Amino acid sequence: VFKPKKNLDYVVSTDTIVENIHFKGNETPQLIAKKALRTNLSDLAAMGADPEFYSLSISLPRLKAKTFIKDFVKGLKEDQKEFKIKLLGGDLTASLNKITITINIIGTVPRGKFLSRSNSKVNDLIYVTGILGLSNIGLQNLDKKDKKYSEAKLKYLLPQPRVKFSSSIRNFVSSMIDISDGFLQDCNHLARLSNLEFAINSKNIPISDIDTLSHEYRLSAALIGGDDYELLFTSAPSYKDKIIKIANSHNLKITNIGFVKNACKGHVTLNNKTLNIDAYKHF
Questions:
Q1: CA spacing 20 to 30 A to 244: which of 65, 118, 230, 253?
Q2: How many separate helices (H) and strands (E) can be counted in the chain?
Q3: Distance CA 263, CA 235 (A)
Q4: Distance separating alpha carbons of residues 181 and 42, to the nearest angstrom
């Protein structure tokens, strides 16, 4: 039981990660714990909410239980402190051979200030945080020892939910989503729900600088690779300087990649061409 705070709205999200689908299973339990929690924290960031509580359910093979849980808890404890969030409770059960982790997370936002996916306006600027495609590159090169992939692998293993930045800009944002299933697919969600065209310039998309990989490979990873957990959002041009200033104060890269217009309603266009989006789908 918890008591709602005065003048606050509660934001609730649920997300599940599964071994061999969302993580390999040979990562340290601490990293698995942090990825599970951070993917959910990113959902709160997408709505401009501050973390409050979460509940957790884990199913894992009996043989892994003794060695896994102790270090898993260490990872949770570290991130609970970093993101100022508390564990309410949950469930622990045995599974046949794979680990499954489900988190139900709760955050708060000032009354009526939550961010949705459907309020983009004509002439809004479109922004993304961070570098896109790094996580996908990290996943594809997870077993390589070359140091040039270190940042990309860390991005895949340990996402950085933009919670503090999100809550700092929520008064200047019209719509927002976190990029989990690939930039183009998540961008399409905003365009479709706002019933407006999202016009993107591919030259402005922030991609990896690993120059031993082709530009086409890095751009493709940025466009359709998943697990970035960066923020994609729209904002009126008049707020541009404020948003850049806030991003700088968080030491966070932010890029204006396009704008919203009233043309190909509900579609994303890349360099003025309408896209048939073929991105990751769970089923």
A1: 118
A2: 8, 11
A3: 18
A4: 13
